[in-house]
Amino acid sequence: MVNDYFQFLDYGGTLYYYLFEFANFSFLGLLALYTYKIGLINLNSLIVWLAIFFTPLVFNYLLFSPYLFGDQFLYSGEAFLLKTNGQSLYQMNHIDFASKILGSIPLPNFMTVTSLAFSNKLLLFLTFLWFKRYFDDENKILLFFLVPSLLLYSSLALRETLIIIFSILFLISMIKNKYLLALIFLYPIYVLKLQMFAFLSLYFVAKVIFRAHKSNKHAAFFVLSALVGSFILESEILTVVNQFRIGFAAENFRVDGGGTSYAAWNLYGDDIAQALQILTIQEAIIKSIINLPQILLLPMPWNWTSLFHAFQTIESIFLVCLFVYISIKNKNYKNNEFILLSIVLLLSLMLLGLVMANEGTFVRYRFTLFYPFLLAALYIFRNKTNFSKF
Amino acid sequence: MNILKKINLKQKLALTKSYVKEYFLVKKSIVAVGVAMVLSLLIIQITVPKFYVSAVLREAKPLETQGISIGGAPDGLFSDILGVAGSDGNYEEMISNMRSYIVAQRLWDKGWGSIVFGNGQIDEDYFNNIPKNHKLLDRLGSWILGYQLYEYYSAHDLKAFISDSVFPRKDIRDTNITVSMLSSDKEFAIKFIEAVILETDSYAKEYLIAKSNEIISASYKQLAVSKNSSISSALASTINSEYFKIATLNNDMPYKVYFIDPPHSSEYPVTPNIYAIFISAIIISLFLSSLHSFILKNKDEIW
Asked: Is residue B152 part of a domain?
């Protein structure tokens, strides 16, 4: 019911909230039952996906306040505004774009902040249906969709799931040498997250222009060219890197007087900005190598403030071990496609480590980057890697 | 054709039909939908319909006052680069004042406490003695732990009521402020929102007038003992500036904000959303009955 103009009613954790969102869960549940009935998924998948579909009801309001991930209200507000009267608050930026996609998913209710999380879940389920076709054993793939961070981010009204899905689609298309299709998938990533676009573009250039997936020599030539290129374009690269370093530091900035973020940075951030500046490419390389283990294992134990952080660190270690396991199993590390994938992942992680500031945010960024590469590695060695001994 | 063969549309269609027959067109599902409809009706019946009452405000431009600029970094250096809205002094001050005890106290003195918590009688003896009906659990807690519960409603309760029910909102990059509340009594809500906004603005104005008066009084004292001509001149300038402020504030015009749209109510109640409740209940009942049928049919495999 539309009353003269848009109003976002925050149902909070009331009976209505659970009624409307349980209806969304039920709709997805019926869909899961249907896919089982027509033989698209097996019984294990059905049970697991019913549980996965239920998770949005567990996180927001029940386990933590939705304001912990306050951006959810931006995406929800934008989606509801677009659905109600077609007006956009943000015009063609990532919030508007993500809200348009998530808001277009046919769900029974878009009533609360959690509704878009169910859109995320449905998209993730469709990705699972598509991805598992390449594998003999559906159950093993199912395990990769049970990674806790994926469960968390897809249970919130955020853009992370969309970025992960488009990145997976891009990487698999690239591995299958479908470059035009890959380019199409690169566009939404450009709108949704510029950093991710830069990282994946690196892969595109390496494969299409340098043919770095053909042999080790090609890969080495690509790395060398990237290094030489970075020296030639030193000032341009450093300007962008420094801008991001300062931007992220400013976002995370706090002063004792209670000032936070950009407002406080505008007053007190000048001296710190000077200290954050990277002056040479050599310095950038050294810093990124030093920060690499940290970005891989975020959040670090000395920054843990809750059990949740410890859990995230364990998950980080597990995912890194899984990637290493995939690479050493059957000497997969000798595969040129995998070598290129690993090089791009490593370079991307180094770049991410270079601009790292707020741990909470970067745990999210790291996962969004790492997970699609993990699935891409799995795809390369589909039906070759046995996880029973892992 | 090849793709169609691969998908095997005919078989999928047959399976879909069988799915609908097996799970939806059975007595259990129809009964479940019936029960869901009855429950929905019950929920709708016990829910009090609430109207959306809102007012749109615009921030009044700040007065240009004489004084010495203390400088500072340019506003929104990173806000501009990263598209983040900058700080919003007027709006934040308005929220602080709106949710302050002082504004609640002023509204209380005008009898709003009686309208919200009592029978609306504007009599000081009455509205200062409206008894509180504490919940049984609260009474039990106070008895066990040995503390006293407040006997009567006060301006603190009105302050909590304002914080919980009146919501100011200013969207990113928007210039207008929307103040809204949900209420079953739209006449009350319209008057209450208006009173809260006007009282908040009036308090901001009176606070500044009182502040200017204090500055003038202190400046006069300093002027009387000052022997330095440049200090005397600066003090005189300050006094002039503060008198100018008082002159511009001492009127009935709005100060921080003014109404673009006066408070008005939605035509229909926005909650409960009857259609959404019925549709949700039907979907939930279909799912639960289907799940039950599925578990019964596959219990050996599941366990």
From this structure: yes
Number of domains in chain B: 2
Q: Which residue of B174, B287, B292 to mutate against A (max A Cβ within 10 Å)? A: B287
Mutate to test the interface with B, among A19, A50, A130 (most CBs of B within 10 A): A19
- How far is it, in rounded angstroms, from Cα B154 to Cα A241? 57
Question: Same domain, yes or no, for B127 and B218?
Answer: yes
CATH assignment of the domain containing B184: 3.30.1890
Question: How many CB atoms sit inside 10 A of residue A310's CB?
Answer: 13
In chain A, where the domains are located? 1-127, 159-216+283-385, 233-279
Q: How many CB atoms lie within 10 A of CB B220?
A: 12
CB A380 within 8 A of CB A345: no
Helices (H), chain A: 15-37, 43-59, 71-85, 94-103, 115-131, 138-144, 148-153, 160-175, 179-192, 194-208, 216-232, 234-251, 261-268, 270-276, 281-297, 307-328, 336-355, 359-380
pTM across the whole model:
0.79
The residue of chain A nearest to residue B279, with distances taken between CA atoms, is A108
**Do the domain assignments include residue B230?**
yes
Report pLDDT digits (tens) over A91-123. Answer: 658 888 999 999 999 999 888 889 999 999 999
Q: Are residues B144 and B125 in the same domain?
A: yes
* Domain membership flag for residue B77: no
Q: Which of B109, B89, B112, B94 is nearest to B207 (CA)?
A: B94
Residues B141 and B182 reside in one and the same domain = yes
B251 Cβ neighbours under 8 A, 6+ residues apart = none
The verdict on a CB contact (< 8 Å) between B77 and A266 is yes
The length of chain B in residues reads 303
pLDDT in tens, B190-216: 999 999 998 998 888 888 888 888 999
Looking at residue A301, its amino acid is P
Q: Token pair of B241, please?
A: 């500036």
- The contacts of residue B177 (CB under 8 Å, 6+ apart) are B56, B57, B58, B59, B91, B94, B168, B169, B170, B257
Residues B201 and B224 occupy one common structural domain: yes
Structure tokens at A323: 């990637």
Q: Do B275 and A1 touch (CB under 8 A)?
A: yes
Verify that B190 and B294 share a domain, yes or no: no
Q: Are A22 and A57 in contact (CB under 8 A)?
A: yes
Domain range spanning residue B239?
Answer: 51-66+82-265
Same domain, B26 and B169: no
What's the pLDDT score for residue B250? 75
Across the interface, whether the CB atoms of A262 and B298 are under 8 A apart is answered no
Asked if residue B115 is part of any domain, the answer here is: yes
Q: Cα dist. A362→A164, A251, A301, A352, B129 in Å?
A: 15, 12, 15, 8, 55
